[in-house]
């Protein structure tokens, strides 16, 4: 049995499909299955059992000896949510429960951390574990992920193999349900489809021109490739960045979307919403040397390659 939490979500559903493609079909899917629109993400995939996330901890305690590996991808991922109690419960404390049962039943674990833990990047974007306790996230979501990372590093008892993955700006198929939290690629595609134009946030930082704010955009297919490689690798535990390793501008991304849709460019700028303006990251870039140092050598999609694959195969 391989467990995937967040199974009907964006990354989780892509991960199950990848596992199926490698003939791993005894999949335990964990999530809240109440939303029919999200359930279609796993339609047709080979899954042995669906378990509601509220029942999973009890199930795992009773069945842990049958579980070969856990991918704990599920989380509350809304960066605009300010319910600290809920985020702590769902992201920090829930993951602690999974961690402790992985120790009890000797189950290897890969869990989702986030690049949101890096905050403004004042300490850089290196996944050096000695530096992680210094990080200052900009929102409660990032803090809930940071709190678990720090807690995990402090533990004397750890799973026999464990990895926390700091996901950067992931984009790709099955993210349609994420609303405001969906990738800029998704929003650009829909805005261009409906209006033949794209509005980007204006820069409110004199060091960056409009549209030249930069992010590390990583294609979900690369993310799941790394996850499966770690499952096969099962050594060198720790916390790792997972981005493309190359920061690109929002203008680059938007131009790539126009090109993939075969439409002429029409780009303008609007003010960044005030509720996120003071917590807006102007630059993120994953230092990927740590993952490379333990043997991962598969080439990542460029932004243009990923955007073209996503739009041409899944959206148009």
UniProtKB/TrEMBL annotation:
Pfam families reported in the protein's UniProt record: Epimerase
GO biological process: carbohydrate metabolic process
Pathway: Nucleotide-sugar biosynthesis; ADP-L-glycero-beta-D-manno-heptose biosynthesis; ADP-L-glycero-beta-D-manno-heptose from D-glycero-beta-D-manno-heptose 7-phosphate: step 4/4
Binding-site residues for NADP(+), renumbered to this chain: 10-11, 31-32, 38, 53, 73-77, 145, 170, 178
MF terms (GO), sorted A to Z: ADP-glyceromanno-heptose 6-epimerase activity; NADP binding
Lineage top rank: taxon: Bacteria
Reaction it catalyzes: ADP-D-glycero-beta-D-manno-heptose = ADP-L-glycero-beta-D-manno-heptose
Domain NAD-dependent epimerase/dehydratase residues, every copy: 2-243
InterPro entries found in the cross-reference section: Epimerase_deHydtase, Heptose_epim, NAD(P)-bd_dom_sf
Residue numbers annotated as active site: 141 (proton acceptor), 178 (proton acceptor)
Residues that, per the record, bind substrate: 169, 180, 187, 201-204, 215, 280
Alphabetic keyword roster: Carbohydrate metabolism, Isomerase, NADP
Co-factor requirement: NADP(+)
Free-text cofactor note: Binds 1 NADP(+) per subunit.
EC numbers for this chain: 5.1.3.20
Domain comment (free text): Contains a large N-terminal NADP-binding domain, and a smaller C-terminal substrate-binding domain.
Family: Belongs to the NAD(P)-dependent epimerase/dehydratase family. HldD subfamily.
Functional description taken from the UniProt entry: Catalyzes the interconversion between ADP-D-glycero-beta-D-manno-heptose and ADP-L-glycero-beta-D-manno-heptose via an epimerization at carbon 6 of the heptose.
NCBIfam families: heptose_epim
Name listed for the protein in its UniProt record: ADP-L-glycero-D-manno-heptose-6-epimerase
